[in-house]
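Troubleshooting: if your tokenizer reports a length mismatch, compare against these two reference records.
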Amino acid sequence: MEKSGKGVLLWVVLLNLAIIVSEIYFSAVSNSVALLSDAMHNTGDISALLLALAAATLSERKATKKKTFGYSRAEIIAAEINSLLILAVALFLVYESLKKITHPSEIKGRLVMLVASIALAGNVASALILREGSEHNINRKGAYLHMVADAGTSLAVVGGGAASYFFGLNIVDPLIGIGVAVVIFIGGMRLFMEAVHILMEGAPDVDVEEIRKKALKIEGVKDMHSIRCWKLSDKEAYFVGHLVVSARSLKDAVGIRKSVERCIKKEGITNVTLQIESAEECGEKANVL
């Protein structure tokens, strides 16, 4: 993550710290468990954002003799932890909502609406700030989902406060909380599966067999086998394989290899390594894996 990206995360952390302090104070004044639970939710997200900052800093460290790929996976590990926190938050919201259904309590609805609305505005602002670039950075995506989750819980608190203040309907608040929890859980599960796919060295969103077919259409290419394609991070994808060529000289073979590399990189692969083999050396058999 670039320095500007880390600066954005830092501002979001400071903004949410202010929200947490306000909600804890006014939860005591208004006798609102909903505000207190929202503050606890925000506290968990602050921890996740700090984790994202640490991972972003660590991922910028250069490769070493012991870690030849560098620390790019630090952001993926942080995203995995973030996804688990998101899932835990969703379950916590369900638990708190069910508890409020079975044990409803009177709250100062007007004060709750005011404080939760301010918190909602802060969370929405944080989410909008983090949204830019979240599609291309899995760690920032995790932080963005946390802010969306915060906005959802704040909205639920506002709705619950309004229902209590205007209509005396305390049951509305926990029902909204359950609906928000479902949305949060789905987003967290998607992030979890995406991070697992990268950690398991799954292939990027490309068709490896289709890439092989395109390579075989290049003049001089007889076959391509022993292919391995994986994502190191959300920004780096690797492709390695054995390239069987029919070339009269090493110079011709190198030219063919460069043509195949350009073909593969057009598919969004950032790093390509091909081992050249002669048709006589490899034989007729092809094995994609």
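Reference record two:
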Amino acid sequence: MSRIFSRWKASLAEFRTDKAGIAFTFYICLLALSAIPAPAAEPAARSLSESEKAAAKIMARIKLPPGFKISLFASDMLSPRQIAISPSGTVFVGTRVDKEGVVYALPDRNKDGRADEVIVVAGSMRQPNGVALKDGALYVAEINKISRFDNIEKDLKHPPRPVVIAEMPSDTHHGWKYIRFSPDGKLFWPQGAPCNVCEPSKPVYGTLNFLDASGKSQNFARGIRNTVGFDWQPGSGVLWFTDNGRDNLGDDRPPDELNSAPKAGMHFGFPYRWGDNQKDPEFGDKAPADLVDKFAPPAMCLGAHVASLGMRFYTGKSFPKAYQGNVFIAEHGSWNRSKKSGYRITMATIKGGKAVKYEPFATGWLDDASQDVGGRPVDLVVASDGSLLVSDDYAGNIYRISYQGK
């Protein structure tokens, strides 16, 4: 290149005004320009898959507070439900598909807020709704059992054989499980009532339980119709959980509930009481005398039939302080209300260990005017960067909600 410009300079020094001189100079200029490398071509934009296009249409409907953004973490999954994130950042997702249910692993190796691929790590399972992680092992809850996959991240595409650690009732009505490890290492699991409303025919129905160190199940709380989401409040260590109210009492009752259980042995009213100690019209007068004055009221009454499922205390730092320490709830949405309710994410403000406010946070999966449903939030979890990951079993997506600032 330097030789070319030296020749160019010399030729200009001998520049003549005749046609030959001008032609020679022009030739040298062209030669110099041709030696300059062309700018690198920008990579072609990746075309979106059909599932990504569908997800983009859904996300365009979502309304969030100022400064928040929703993006797609993963798509094209079958009924994604509970989410668990490993310390290395791999996202595991359960599904609620009978007999052919699978569990997904979604690695994000470059930490760009988007799953690199969707990997099936377990299959041919009975509604493997629940997933949890501890000491490098993945725990999966099906309808009738909990299994453990040791050292799951060693090779996601060649997972280990599962080891069954606990057997559960095989009832499918409210039989899908949500599981979590408590701060002291106990694996909590629920057993919903096998009915819309009924007195439990077995002590295990309508309960929240845990596996002790020996693998034996112990009861923690009763009178719970069907909880599909629970978490422990940071600092106090108190367990909070959602509960779905019964059906067939009209559009506006009973409410779903957000409950707080500061100690073991509490009874939360089902099937005798709901909401703020309201008697159930079928079972209210059948309550055992020794329980009548002991039913625990809800920490907060939620919307009727909103199907409150996954809930988490926000433990991240990237959301503004007004959101930190509060409870986010995934409302799956009503199925038999004359005007649909739910289909959103709400937030319960917690002050002094009490729920003091309940309000929408992310809406738009339901179009109120047309009643068109675009998605149904199921579970949410706080990622290491402070964003919320949200599963949607209707659209088959995992969304990422982050705060970008005003």
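Descriptive notes for reference record two:
- Confidence is low (pLDDT under 50) at residues 1-33.
- The longest strand covers residues 354-362.
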